[in-house]
Amino acid sequence: MTTETEPATATEPATGKEPSETEPEVETSMVDFDKTGNGYKGPDTFPKHTQQYFQFGFRWQKGARDGYGEDSTYYPTPLLLEHLESNEESLRVLDLCGRALTDPLMEPIVAALEGNTSVTELLMSRNKMNHSALPLMETLKSNASVTVLKLKSNDLRGQAIRALAEMLKHNTSIVEIDLTCNPVKADAKMIAEALGENRTLRTLRLDNCGIEDDGAMALLEALEVHPSILDFSAYNNCCVDKDLRKRMRGFSKSK
Questions:
Q1: Hey, which bits of the chain come out as E strands?
Q2: pLDDT averaged over the chain?
Q3: pLDDT tens across 114-127, in order?
Q4: Statement: residue 16 has pLDDT above 90
């Protein structure tokens, strides 16, 4: 003879636990974003000397999104802006690589660079930069300390590329530019034109920039007469002509 069991009730859960057992309380309150630079440094590993200049804010934190959009992301600390504005001697290489910084986050950094004369390398690859490049290029027109400008894997297009080309006509200190994985496209012609007035650039990288035959031809013609470029590459572009594709693979000359 089988014996019927009573169904489980709210006070007697059918989980195998004794009624006296309770789950630990989960903390659900929001923590305010720490704007002092002493907050969480983020989920990735970056060069140790850059960690003091960034903190990570989650989208659910109060104060983390003010003016910056909706994503969880890295934020520049006040110390970074202070060091740029005061020409901190130890800050020679500004390394922003891989922080996924958007234009609103880049803008205060670019503004702090306006009068800076100590930074010699701008490493800005793997961010989300576009319009904030406009004031940066304006600053670099007359800047005499920056020698390396790396902008790989951003979102530079249209006006930003044309501003960079205009900067090349005036700047006399930059020897290396990397624009790999930016949608340069037809504005390659503007860069080619600018090379005609530039005398200091030595390395130019335009890999995977959506450049078609007309732009490629203009670049190659400009490079033939440029007095100082020793290292050039433009792999994986959109050239149809086989000979152009081959020539756009680039060259490396000895000094």
A1: 54-57, 73-76, 93-95, 121-123, 148-150, 176-178, 203-205, 231-233, 251-252
A2: 87
A3: 999 999 999 999 99
A4: no
> 3-class SS at 31?
coil
> What is d(CA 222, CA 238) in angstroms, rounded to the nearest whole number?
19
Q: What is the pLDDT of residues 130-151, one digit of tens each?
A: 999 999 999 999 999 999 999 9
- The residues, any chain, with a CB within 8 Å of residue 245's CB and separated by 6 or more, are 237, 239
Question: How far is Cα 113 from Cα 106, in angstroms, rounded to an integer?
Answer: 11
Q: Which domains does the chain have, with CATH numbers?
A: 74-252 (3.80.10.10)
255 pLDDT tier (thresholds 50, 70, 90): low
- CB-neighbour burial class of residue 156 (10 A; exposed 0-12, middle 13-18, buried 19+): buried
Quickly count: other Cβ atoms within 10 Å of residue 144's Cβ: 11
Interacting residues of 62 by C-beta distance below 8 A, sequence separation 6+: 30, 31, 32, 33
Sort 202 into a burial class: Cβ within 10 Å, 0-12 / 13-18 / 19+.
middle
Structure tokens of 51? 């960690």
Angle between helices 78-85 and 103-112 (to 10 degrees): 30
**Residue 53: partners with Cβ closer than 8 Å, 6 or more residues away:** 76, 77, 79, 80, 83
The larger pLDDT score, comparing residue 24 to residue 232, is at: 232
What is each CA distance from 204 to 47, 99, 102, 133, 243, in whole angstroms?
A: 25, 23, 24, 18, 20
